[in-house]
Amino acid sequence: MTGTEAGAMRVDVFPTLDDEGAAMAELIRGRLHGVDVREVTSTQPFAVATSMVAADAVVLDLTPDSAAHRYTAMAYPWRQDKVLAVSRSYLPLNVAPARPGGAALYPGRRSAEEIAAWVAVQVRELAGRGRPSLLQRMRGAAGMTAGARAEPADVFISYRGLDDKAAQALRAALEKGDHHGGRGQRVKMFDAGQLAHPEAVLPALIRWNVLAVISDVVKDARETWIVDTPHYLQSWFTQGELVCPPYFGRPGTLVAYDPGSGSARPAPGKYVATLDTTAHKRLARYFANSHPDLMAPESTAALRELRPTRLPLAKDEVFADAFWTVPLLQCTRCSIREPDRPDIDVAGFLTNANPRLYPVALDTLAACASGQTPLRCTNPDGCPQRFTVRALPPYYLWYALPVAGGSYLGTIPAYAAVPITS
């Protein structure tokens, strides 16, 4: 595995500055035979930029739960295709690498051996492209060129987690060429639990953060296929996936797939979202303040301090503490207020009215988790449904500038709530 010019391919590795980081760097070195691997321990602001110019690939160990993490003085380098972001735990909400796959999914962990194997595959693929010119490297280090974008999907599959098996079967059929005259399709779908913990009670910020990631795929797909079941519209996320195409002005083709018969037809009108000016404005605020590449939690922290003033921007709900931290519970028993509604309720979706989402104080969830006492549905109209609650690992946020206490990382508490069926 060598470069296309004279000399071996060069890979700079920035490990976390602890024993685990050093051990993983050594595993990576052992995987990259014939490659000039250099371990970089410098914490100077321009160390990463220097490596991005000089090296053919840069490995950033972005494990956030390390006391010696590497999030200081790094301005979005993971957005470049040659930068391999890895992490033994899950990444912060606003860190979306150009090359995904090098980090664990929430709330899990990846071994150093798994990460080293992934790095070897990525380096091999980069080596096959040839070595970029010095000017291209300098532009990349300065953020003047974007990372390589994945080719848009032909088909995006939208489905409820309950219908995972049907969605997986549909993906296989579409990739084989079924429904398209034998022409295999590039299919994208997110596996159940891939973007959000299935039992987590998510605050608005994380809900919209997940939907922003999904929207990057939905808005570019030529077709969106719905796994059409009676409970499809009862999910906040599936409703969001229908709202994305008209918002981005790329509606594409909407197809309803019946998993029972295996037939497909143009989606009925009830799945076609219509957005008015109010909805467009509200979606613009949500996406701008939750997309991994756009959100700026350090700015939000500053604006939150200005909320008592008359500055209109500071009073927007997306800067309120509740938007960022207060979990929203969807009760399986009472949250669908209009189960027989004939179409998608865009206004209800945007105001958390349909499906209905109930805010639950963090203190309440913490008390239920620590005391192992059930949580009663917080529907103000009354609902007998109860939930078992347990604490989950916190979500991370990366700050481009240090905030209170000089930290570049923040956390959001997380809890799971599971309906009690008996």
Can you describe what's shown?
With 422 residues, the chain is of the alpha/beta class. It has twelve helices and 16 strands. The chain has a five-stranded parallel sheet with strand order 2-1-3-4-5, with helices on both faces. The chain has a five-stranded mixed sheet with strand order 7-6-9-10-11, with helices on one face. It has a three-stranded antiparallel sheet with strand order 8-12-13. Helix 5 links the parallel strand 6 and strand 7. Helix 2 runs antiparallel to helix 4 and helix 6 crosses helix 7. The longest helix has 18 residues. The radius of gyration is 23 Å and the shape is globular. 36% of the residues are buried.
